[in-house]
Amino acid sequence: MAKAEHKHIDVTREESVVWFAEQFLKFANWDENNYDAVVKLFSYERYYADTKEKLAKELPDFERKKVIQILDKGINDLSKELAGEIKRRPVNKVDWQNTKAKDNMFVSNGKPIFLYDYFSKTVGQPLTNKDIYNDHLGALYHGGEDLYPVDHDRAINSFLVREDGTFDEELMKELTRIPDTNIGFLVYWLMGIPQWVEEREPEVRKGRSLFTGFDIDNPLAREVWGKIIRKTGELTKGKKVTEVGFVLANEPHWYAEKGHWTQKFQEMTSISSYTLDKFRNWLSTKYQDDINKLNENWDTNFKSFKSVAIEIPIDPALKGLPIWYDWTRYNMDRSTDWFTYVQNELHSVNEDADTHIKIMPRMFMEDSRSGGIDTEALAELTTMVGHDAKSFGSENIRPGKSSKWIEKYAYNWGIVTMFHDFMESVAPNKINVNSESHFLSSGQWRDLDTRTSYVRSVYWLATLLGMDANMGWFWARDPDGSPEDRLEGDLDFFDPGLGGAFAGSNNMQPHVTNEVTQVMFDLNSFSEEIVKLREQRRPLRLFYSETTAINTNDYMTKSYELYENLFFEGFPLGFATKNVIEKQDNNNWDAILVYRNNFVTNEEFKALQGYLNKGGTVILDSAQSLSLDEYGHPRKAKLVASKGKLIVMPKDADVEAIKQTALAEVSGSTPDVVVKVDNGESFKTTTWRTVKQDNGSYLVNILNLGHTTATVDLSLKNGKPIHVNNLMTSNKMNNSFDIPSEGVLLVEVTAQ
């Protein structure tokens, strides 16, 4: 490093390598000297419980060996640069004090910047502790990492307001004493509710969920939270800790169907009288105050809307029937109403406050729609897009859970990509914040010897597809190596919980934690190029209907199969909904593909017909698509081409035939750079993006998501000879080259 600095070579990357090496050597010593504590930490995670003694014994030397690996790689990389074999671009470091949120990206020192940190950082340590908040781990100031109600460290929670309407000033100090030096984020933590509220409102816990511990329709709960939001919004107005926004909720969900796994946490086992009354009013509006229409539709005999009753949790056997649709649609609308209220209260005192919600991707990706979350509506509502997208780097560790993806791919990339493509389609001009990225481990997967190639690939992929900030899960080491306070002592109050999250996580993985920072350094070095690659037109849009999703058992499963088949064709995929068609420029795409969308509202149908009337192209997978309304009633109207182009596929057309038809319709938008890939398999695993630059050259980003090495051939459509330059090393490459499993490549192609 000294030699490199003498030659004015940037050593930011190596500074982090050395820092992580020093930290994890301390951690290894602590783990070695506290064997019993480490055994206990492994025991909290049932996947490791049977081998906890063996693992605890091996852990210190495992960590030391991984430290040696990252040091050896650092020496090798820097030696190559000193020898002139490679030339790396200097790191574009985050300005943790002055980065600003612009319309659709964060900007630091005049350039796009991708923020990184950990959502939950060791509690009890001051925000000014540079062993915790620095360029290596990230330095976003947190106002809400209190995950459980055993303490209230900096979280904005229900206990801030007393029964007499005054505020608990001691608790409020956890917020007000956050230094106004670094940018950061604040979290509204909705898990608990004060005893005095329960005494005044006995129903306040009815309809609660795990991370929203009260009835969102309860007027007193709303009053309490209105006061909290207005007060905290005023106190933090203009503060740097709000630059990355307010997280309006942690993983909100209200699954209301019988037999759902959330019921073991006593979620949505009933609804309050307030929720029922609001449902009755919703139905009255929906059915134009005509109870006979509702009775005919539901096959009931209610005398008035005031007498309408429904059993919650609802029986999933009712899926596809009008009562199921109405309740499920209402459950979504009421949660959107709650978040609208929360955001409006905040904006009433702080109109410039940015907001996002930590939406679980499963609310969109999974077939179940009883969870009360309209992903599109919430993405449209908040000023930023929020979520906690995850990936699986190895097989699912839970018995009975499928890992079928591993037959084709090195990791489960689809959860990241399909969710991001949807969010970026419905909210293309908003910052995308993953406020709890589970790329490194989760309750369903972890691997102590996680591949650094996986870490690099998944962070690169997510950023390429729109992620502007990620706060990983999780950092729980104090500077001396001991686990943070919440991991020490008796954890019987929560199972598997925070204790189970530590074992096999990045807190034991120097190679993984270092690689997160290294890939973020590289992404930020090429931030302008990454933004160019991801801000491309999406020529093919897959039509998405929440109506079909509510009414069918396999809509998302089948939609993903089509999405997967189209993902490896070299252009960004997009989605279209009624709102996308009506609110966005239809010239942003060439065609809309309608696949397995039998149930749509009249409004959705009219949006598609309106698109055709303006000259658009629609591909229907069969004549059965769009044939039913939201209640399963046959639709007499059929799409007509009008000024546009309507392609109706034969009823027996398979996914491949539909795909080829769609590709033909967008062939005019395919890039000038031709990318041919041979991975030795009958299926595709390599994805790429290309974009033309102002100087006439082309950026090409290539990711191999498969198990095998792939051979790539680059050429131009016009047949002109090309030069290929590896932007990561500044080295010339042949037109044909190999890219390994989980390889990441960014090149520049120039015509000779």
TrEMBL record:
It comes from the Bacteria. InterPro entries: Class_I_gatase-like, GH. SUPFAM superfamilies: (Trans)glycosidases. This is Glycoside hydrolase family 42. It comes from Pseudoalteromonas carrageenovora IAM 12662.
